[in-house]
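Subject: for your reference before the review

Hello V.,

The reviewers asked for a structural picture of the protein, and I figured it would be easier to keep everything in one thread rather than splitting it across files. Below is the amino acid sequence we used in the manuscript, unchanged from the supplementary table.
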Amino acid sequence: AYLPAAEAAARMAAADVCVLPYRTATQSAVATAAFARGVPVIATRVGGLPDAVADGASGLLVPPEDPSALAAALARFFEEPGLAERLAKGAAEAGRRDGWAELVAAIEHLVNERRR
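And here is what came back from the structure prediction:
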């Protein structure tokens, strides 16, 4: 279902974790949105998600179509001492490193290099 940007941002900011149990995907802007708010991601290993989610650093990755593995990752997230906090720190770092400001800076750098 569609959510207006402000509502989506508010919901993401209130979340402890973002779960992306995709069966197939190429990429997901949802992971980027989560990281921008310091929210770790638990996702399936499909498409570009393993490139976006650093397993054990900014989130956890599980095999697709494996509900038991997804459940185990969720339980681990909430039960393993310090894991949620460590992943939230990694998610915030990913959000700073891979955010819009960094993308704009990289594009500006490429444009300036081409002008030289």
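For the response letter, the relevant points are probably these. The longest helix spans residues 100-115. The chain has a mean pLDDT of 92.

Happy to draft the paragraph if you're swamped.

O.
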